[in-house]
Amino acid sequence: MKKLIKNGIVVTAADTYEADLLVDGEKIIEIGRNLTADDAEIIDAKGAYIFPGGVDPHTHLDMPFNNTVTDDDWETGTIAAAFGGTTTIIDFCLTTGDDTLEKAVARWHGKAEGKAAIDYGFHLMLANLDEKVLEELPLLLEKEGITSLKVFMAYAKEFQADDRTLFRAFKAAKEAGALVMVHCENGSVIDELVTKALAEGHTEPIYHALTRPPEAEGEATHRAIELAHMADSQLYVVHVTCAEAVKQIAEARAKGYKVWGETCPQYLVLDQSYLEKPDFEGAKYVWSPPLREKHHQKVLFDALKAGILQTLGSDQCSFNFNGKKQLGRNDFSKIPNGGPFIEDRFSIFFSEGVKKGILSLNQFVDIVSTQPAKLFGLFPEKGTIAVGADADLVIFDPEVKRVISAKTHHMNVDYSAFEGMEITGEPISVLCRGNFVIKDKKFIGQPGSGKYLKRKKINQGALQSPTAATV
Ligand SMILES: NC(=O)NCCC(=O)O
Ligand SMILES: [Zn+2]
Ligand SMILES: [Zn+2]
Questions:
Q1: Looking at the DSSP assignment, which residues form a beta bridge with residue 149?
Q2: Into how many domains does the chain fold?
Q3: Which of 315, 316, 325 to mutate to test the pocket of ligand 1 (most atoms within 8 A of CB)?
Q4: What pairing do the DSSP bridges indicate for beta strands 422-432 and 435-439?
Q5: How far is the C-alpha of 107 from the C-alpha of 98, rounded, in Å?
Q6: What ipTM was estimated for this complex?
Q7: Burial category of 309 from C-beta neighbours within 10 Å (exposed 0-12, middle 13-18, buried 19 and up)
Q8: pTM
């Protein structure tokens, strides 16, 4: 049955206008005023914004990490994402532990199939690029439509890649038409600082932040930029947190380097002082890079506004406080790194960005949906509202006020990093490819209905030049 969404205000990265939307099957087939359709279900969206579904380019669902596994799986994680207005995620497929990349990807398909309630793709997370991996990589990227790789400059004992590996990743990506995502922190310096702090008897969560200074992020960001440039390749810096890293990205983009950047809602609204909460509560706020001092928040908002950073990822990586976070009770370096953000990414950004007058409605859509879709080869099927696009739609009440709490969220985790925060705006109904996943704030979707998305290569027009990507 067709669906006719009437009287809403359609918002894209470019326009804001009143219109009705006619959806047939998975697609938007007509946009206009006073549309009628005899055989359609009518949805009245008066007073609501209609946004394209959020595209979250950074999640870790059911992922082995820091000697444990994240607590949200593909069912709880994608349902929570849908409640929050996200209809597509791109998750990180971990390749360590498998002897071929193909096996790792098959394992990730196994985690998602039958569980994902929204659409999804995979990035490939690589720790080494030996001859075997380099041979398999292009074949796998082609077959699976995986057009992005992630390499870590941090996590010395788990994933850290050396400069040679990083350079190889850039070279291989250039040839394969893929984008290299890099976690930019100097892992060796951090390892040294952590060892020293522990030797001096400092075990509390705040030392997680104190041993990962912003300079370590700025230095690594600079190195990644130069290595990408030397390889004539392209770089996407994940979870940017601080002025030091923003400066490097801004300078590179001004020189025309192919560099893009992401930040996350937690860095925009929380600060380092949260790690000082008593009774080990600071562990709830341990992730990497760490929360920074408050003055970095404005730098990040300004960078998003100016188009120096283009996207907002959740970096969803949840661990229960009264569970896996306790692994680090006597040693901050053993606290699993990550937090629960997939559900609140969209609404917090609307409330803090649009409602507080920092961003326009169109900039909001660009950052939470359109730019991630473009950068990761999903546009124009995803990331916009247009005839022929997938009917991934968020019917959003921009005025309702609510308080974020673990008591009401849908993630499989016993705390919210934003507990008690009052925000304005909430998704009322969410459609993914024309089907309601959330209707009137209730989940009516189907685990397993999410579709795996093969993505376009960057040389197929997925990627824009630095100047074109500015808002
Ligand atoms: N960010 C974080 O602490 N955990 C997830 C893994 C990563 O993205 O570094
Ligand atoms: Zn990372
Ligand atoms: Zn991450």
A1: 124, 180
A2: 1
A3: 315
A4: antiparallel
A5: 9
A6: 0.99
A7: buried
A8: 0.97
